[in-house]
Amino acid sequence: MRLLNRRPGNIGVVASAATPFVLALVVYVAASGVRLAENPDDKLLPSLVTVGEAIERVALTPDRRTGDYILWTDTAASLKRLFIGVGLAAAVGLAVGVPNGLLPWFGAFFSPWVRAMSMIPPLAILPILFIVFGIGELAKVMLIVLGTAPFLMRDIEQRVRELPREQLVKAQTLDGTTWQITLRVVLPQVLPRLVDGVRLSLGSAWLFLIAAEAIASTDGLGYRIFLVRRYLSMDVILPYVVWITLLAFLLDFALRRVNRRCFPWYGV
Amino acid sequence: MSLVDVRNVWKRYPGKTVLENVRLEVDEHEFVTIVGASGCGKTTFLRMLLGEVEPCQGVIEIAGERLVPEPRADRGVVFQRYSVFPHLTVLGNVLLGLEFADSRVLGRTFGRRRRLAVDRAEAMLDRVGLLSSASNYPSQLSGGMQQRLALAQTLITEPSILLLDEPFGALDPGIRTDMHSLVRELHRELGLTVFMITHDISEGFSLGSRLLVFDKPRLDPHEPDLYGATITFDLPVGNRPDLDSVVENLNVT
Fold it and tell me: Where are the domains of chain A?
């Protein structure tokens, strides 16, 4: 049988997927063991026990100075920025992308502008954001918005243009106005595509979030990682990275579920 | 006065003439079928009647008024594909035209008016044999059912002219025969004027009351796009109301 026709069974799928994860863990434990045997104070590859203690310290014990559970306050602060930033970007993406794709005159004005603006590397204007918006929450949220909105605007514009011409003609023969057609034909079909666009842009949203927190913040997941970096605290950094990865995965999973639940006709 | 009056219509694109000097008068309740080689401008002609394409030269009048180059509610359309909205259920697709008419701001009706609209939509779905699929999405329907839905959706707003662009081109022969009788019945019941493009000549002969053939009367072999197509044959055919009444009289006696 050809290789391209061989498929793993149910158990095979789970086992294959788990193997690289288990392997990575085994390699880490072994490497950490070797280093710690040489130098018990090594901080680069802490043992799983040390990592477990660090997790207990940041997640389960209140901070001695503030009384907060650090991991949870960091998570809440970061997720709040992420949700506001991405939510605003999605709203802007929809508000600009739909008319750009649907209305020739609107597109003639704003489409080239959006295309040009989306070429600006957002991190390059981070200093401008801190100057204009101060170093508070607003600058961090704005970095996420500026980083992800251009992609969403262009993506939505493209999705609107991809709607079959026949549908728009048909809606007009049913006597729909531009507004009615936007509301009943275009928007509902674009929303699940917006959710897909948001899923794709979440990766860069996390990037901008952590970059902003690393530079100017007093809490947040990115802030913590860059703070403890000074003490070479790999035992905190590693679980934080795993936690961020898990959050990103869960967000993506949730959005996929939203699409399936709310738009059963989509992607069938 | 004829319902549709096409006078000396031309359509040129840069380096290409698609239609030249098309002249046509169509009365109410006629069933016009259009055949011709692919790329000979049949669809362009239909899109002109629809208002989606503007003629470069010449005039199209409908009921004595010059056609505004924009699709309007007096002309319904069914395409070969993409005629129904994938995000609406079968019932929602048929309701849409009624909801557009009822609510200018939201495009949605509620309460008692919605129940009235649903009743009308369900009657129309019953007429085309789709009532049992009312809560399904179009992607769950077969090709023939989707085209039935497209017909119901268009006819609910009571257009006087129905434009069909190869509506049965993608269907199996058996289903196509069913669709023929449905369209023929709807044409008679609703007093529609129908324009239908087909690539199936026998369909053109049997279904319509009038058959138009689009072809290029002049052809430059060195530059095939130089001249455009026009109506080269205009034949009275098969499904004529006068013949039908003769047949019905025969049946009665």
Answer: 3-45, 70-262
Note whether A173 contacts B104, CB cutoff 8 Å: no
Give the pLDDT of chain B (253 residues) as one tens digit per residue. 688 898 888 998 898 888 988 889 898 899 999 998 888 888 999 999 999 998 898 999 998 889 888 999 999 999 988 889 999 999 999 999 999 998 888 888 888 899 999 999 999 999 888 999 999 999 999 888 999 999 999 999 999 999 999 888 888 888 888 888 889 889 988 889 999 999 888 888 888 889 999 988 888 888 888 888 888 888 888 755 555 554 455 444 3
For residue B135, which residues of chain A lie inside 8 Å, CB to CB? none
Chain B interface mutation, best of A160, A166, A167, A173, highest count of B Cβ atoms under 10 Å: A173
Q: Report the residue of chain A nearest B95, measured CA to CA.
A: A174
- Indicate yes or no: CB of A265 within 8 angstroms of CB of B137: yes
Q: Report the CATH number of the A70-262 domain.
A: 1.10.3720.10
What is the rounded CA–CA span in Å between residue B7 and residue B11?
12
Ordered by where they begin, the domains of chain B are 1-74+159-253 (3.40.50.300), 83-157 (no CATH)
DSSP string, chain B: --SEEEEEEEEEETTEEEEEEEEEEE-TT-EEEEEE-TTSSHHHHHHHHHTSS--SEEEEEETTEEPPSS--TTEEEE-SSS-S-TTS-HHHHHHHHHHHHH-TTTS---HHHHHHHHHHHHHHHHHHT-GGGTTS-GGGS-HHHHHHHHHHHHHTT--SEEEEESTTTTS-HHHHHHHHHHHHHHHHHHT-EEEEE-S-HHHHHHH-SEEEEEE-SS--TT-TTSS-BEEEEEEE-S--HHHHHHHHHHHH-
